[in-house]
Design brief:
- It is built from 3 helices and no strands.
- It has helices at about 5-15, 15-25, 30-45.
- It has one domain.
- Helix 2 (about 15-25) packs across helix 3 (about 30-45).
- The chain has about 60 residues and is mostly helical.
């Protein structure tokens, strides 16, 4: 799971969104703690995690 690695964030979101995310993480203590905790879990269980899929269908 590379979701919270800087290179992957830039690939997925683009440079401007990645910079905005970085700014928010730097300036918002509680958000920084949440993001770092998520990354720690991803790294700890990286051998057991492959992917997360969300499938949604909009009803008419």
């Amino acid at each position: 799971m590379h979701l919270l690695r800087p290179r992957r964030v830039i690939q997925d979101e683009g440079i401007l969104a990645a910079l905005r995310l970085a700014k928010n993480i730097l300036l918002d203590g509680p958000a920084r703690r949440r993001v770092l905790a998520m990354r720690k879990v991803f790294e700890r269980y990286r051998n057991n995690l492959n992917a997360i899929f969300i499938i949604a269908r909009k009803t008419e």
